Amino acid sequence: MPRRAVLLVGALCVLPMIAAPAQARDQADLGLAYRIIAAKTFVDLTHSFGPQTPVWAGFGQAKFSPAADPKTHEPYTIAKDGFRTTFYEMVGQYGTHVDPPAHFALDGITMDQIPLKEMILPLVVLDDTPYLGKDPNHAFSVADLKAWERTHGRVPKGAFAALRTDMYKDWDSNPERFKRQPFPAWAFETIKYLYEERGVTATGHEAMDTDTTDKMDSETYILQHGHYQIEVMANLDKVPATGAVIVVTWPKVEKGLGFPARAFAILP
Q1: Distance between CA atoms of residues 237 and 127, nearest Å
Q2: In 3D, which of 41, 45, 260, 44 has the Cα closest to residue 162?
Q3: Per-residue confidence at 27, pLDDT binned at 50, 70, 90?
Q4: Coil, strand or helix: which one is 58?
Q5: Does the model's pTM come out above 0.70?
Q6: What are phi and psi for residue 95, nearest 5 degrees?
């Protein structure tokens, strides 16, 4: 056999022996990562929602009803059919939800096109609550962000930045107060700074809107620049300023313009 052929055969024989240990290492690494994650504390960042929960007046309340047989119009029941299910009638932007770029941009990606790797990110929580005593509707400014960074370090590139205002506490106990205008929110300059100077991947907040400008400047900027946001978040006061990971997911609606989302944090 020619020498080149011998070398090729030898290489082909060695490759599986090299690949097998590498694959085993990768599996071991993934197993270790799962064991580490499983031992951590998880915090739900999502509100439960129903027909009576707060929503923008321009959309109106959701309607939940028993799903029925389209031929008989009789609702399915466990006693009669062995199962039951619900018919949901609601706008996509309901409860804790995702706004994909296409919500505000004709050429923006829809919710089914958001990359999976953007749905699990390092989480930083920017705390607006120290400013609310003097200004209950304080807009978190770039100066506030820089003060936060002096204590907690620079916001890392690729992070998910969430704004804590503790508004979420009114969601169940005082829905009318939750829907108030104005409310504590992002300053537009801060949103631009986070995306342009810090390179965050996505942002989120507790209110139903990103900021209180008449033209929704912050939300328009985020979505028209190809990013997504999560609105109506909860329990950010239970997450440390840095070190946690956020996982966000939603139904893969074809060409979807928004939908209730499930977000949770894995604490360090």
Answers
A1: 8
A2: 45
A3: confident
A4: coil
A5: yes
A6: 65, -155
What pLDDT, in 10s, does the model give residues 178-216? 999 999 999 999 999 999 999 999 999 999 999 988 889
**Residues linked to residue 204 through DSSP beta bridges, in sequence order:** 162, 230
> Cα–Cα–Cα angle for 238, 239, 243, nearest 5°?
160
pLDDT tens digit sequence for 30-81 = 999 999 999 999 999 999 999 999 999 999 999 999 999 999 999 999 999 9
CB atoms inside a 10 Å sphere around CB 26: 10
Diameter of the chain measured on Cα atoms: 86
Question: Residue 244 is which amino acid?
Answer: A
Provide the 10 A C-beta neighbour count for residue 193.
17
Closest CA to 157 of 128, 191, 185, 199: 199
Q: Which residue type occupies 40?
A: K
CA atoms of 230 and 227, how far apart (whole Å): 10
Structure tokens at 50: 């129903």
Q: Which residue has the tokens 């085993």?
A: 24
Q: Position of tokens 């190809």? A: 226
Neighbours of 30 (CB within 10 A): 10
| Residue 75, phi then psi, degrees to nearest 5 | -60, 140
The four Cα atoms 48, 95, 122, 36 give a dihedral, to 10 degrees, of 20
Give CA–CA dist 234/183, Å, rounded: 16
